Amino acid sequence: MTQADATPRHRIIIVGGGAGGLELAVKLGDCLGKPGKADITLVDRGRTHVWKPLLHQVAAGTLDSHADEIEYLALGRRHHFRFRQGEFTGLDRASKQIRLAPVRSLEGEILLPESSLPYDTLVFALGSQTNDFGTPGAREHSIMLDSPAAALHFHRKLIDASIRAQAGGPAAGQGRFTVAIIGGGATGVELAAELHMTARIMASFGLENLHPERDLKISIVDAAPRVLPLLPERVSSAVSRELRKLDIDLHTNEKVVEVSAEGVRMGSGKFIPSGLTVWAAGIKAPDFLRDIDGLETNRINQLVVDRTLRSTRDPSIYAMGDCAACPMDDSGKAMVPPRAQAAHQQALLLAKTIPRVLAGKPGLPFRYHDHGSLVSLGEYSTVGSLMGRVASGGVFIEGMFAKWMYWSLYKKHQVAINGMFRTWLATWVEAIDRMRNPRIKLH
């Protein structure tokens, strides 16, 4: 046995196969896994990846998640990292191990037992989940649109409601089916527009008793004074105009105090009857991260890291994306926003930092570059601002150019994972599928 064979390779575990975690696994696999400098393992509770900004399209049925999902095992084989399915349940920093829950089949059969995985470097890329702020009834009576499973659950309920409405006949009256969307951020407004478009397409397929202007009512509720409160006011105003053209009700400055099976009650006393309620307001990191094994966390469970994305209490643990509280600068007064572009930029940084640290060099500081924001309203419009800070706006864009820019964001993510050639092929397949299949998923 040679000396090289006797030396154990450095073990890197990435927990979370979202946009940032998957991009990091691909890049580390190519630069460290392929030459045998380290063993990279990606851990996720699911077997496939769907880009989170597309979940509103999955929910509305305008995107078939099975056509756009990426198989972790296949990607790992191509890019020299291992994939281990399992839900993260605990951390033992003393022995440098993570614990994973058993993996079960749909019938409840145990496929993989409860287990532990050792690490030398650990990266948390767990993303975020919806924050219901402890609102009574929110968990029981609304769908939290923060995972592919939740999006598919919403879509099934939407199709079921459409079939019931069709069977009820035109005499059932106005307001037969109402969707209440709690949260006027990007997810909420994009979902509202996609639902309106879905209802139009359903009517063309023969489900004429769920016409968007006559039989479907969509309401957006937000505690802020306007929708898209974190984006420039010009973007918010343009989106509001488009939504009102679609007869979508906007209830701003309204705090939800209770969600029930019948609808949504607000602090002002206003009540919105709802057949289907979606909660898309606020985010937090997973609850199990709160003070996990002594690591520093903030009030929304994010792991506190320094500007190199290293945790403040353990030099072998990093965090990135929505589950990390990373300062914008050395003052620590402002934090990096939980956005997809931040996770992408942090994945690029860690792909450079971790090899440097293994070589005995210091990590690189993260500098967030705000490239602006885009909001898609389905086929109706796309608006946004480019090349500017969120607070000051930037170059306002809308129309076909904005639609192309929004589409290119997803393509950029695909290129980061699959490379240019595979993305080019996938784009042609998508174009063919659009001609071959119905415009929405009807099951």
In short:
By secondary structure, the chain is of the alpha/beta class.
Radius of gyration: 23 Å
| Extended strand count | 27
Give the strand order of the largest sheet, numbering strands 1, 2, ... along the chain: 5-2-1-11-23
| Range of strand content | 15-25%
| DSSP helical segment count | 11
Strand pairing plus helix content: what structural class?
A: alpha/beta
Q: Approximately how much helix is present in the residues?
A: 25-40%
Beginning-to-end CA distance, first to last residue: 57 Å
Mean pLDDT: 83
The coarse silhouette is: globular
Low-confidence region ranges: 170-175, 387-393, 436-443
| Quaternary status | single chain
Give a short account of the largest sheet. 5 strands, parallel
Give an overview in words.
By secondary structure, the protein is α/β, with parallel strands linked by helices. The protein has eleven helices and 27 strands. It has a five-stranded parallel β-sheet with strand order 5-2-1-11-23. β18 and β19 form a beta hairpin. α2 (19-33) packs parallel to α10 (340-358). The longest helix has 37 residues, at 400-436.
Keywords:
single chain; 443 residues; alpha/beta; 5-stranded parallel β-sheet; 27 strands; 23% strand; globular; disordered C terminus; flavoprotein; FAD; NAD(P)/FAD-dependent oxidoreductase; oxidoreductase; NAD
List the helices and strands and how they pair.
Layout: H1 3-6, E1 10-15, H2 19-33, E2 38-44, E3 48-49, H3 55-60, H4 65-68, E4 70-71, H5 72-79, E5 82-85, E6 88-92, E7 97-100, E8 103-104, E9 110-112, E10 115-118, E11 121-124, E12 129-130, H6 138-141, E13 143-144, H7 148-168, E14 177-182, H8 186-204, E15 216-221, H9 233-245, E16 249-251, E17 256-259, E18 263-266, E19 271-273, E20 276-279, E21 283-284, E22 303-304, E23 317-319, E24 324-325, H10 340-358, E25 372-377, E26 381-386, E27 395-398, H11 400-436
Parallel strand pairs: 1-2, 1-11, 2-5, 11-23, 13-20, 14-15, 14-20, 15-16, 22-24
Antiparallel strand pairs: 3-4, 6-7, 7-10, 8-9, 12-21, 17-18, 18-19, 25-26, 26-27
Helix pairs in contact: 2-10
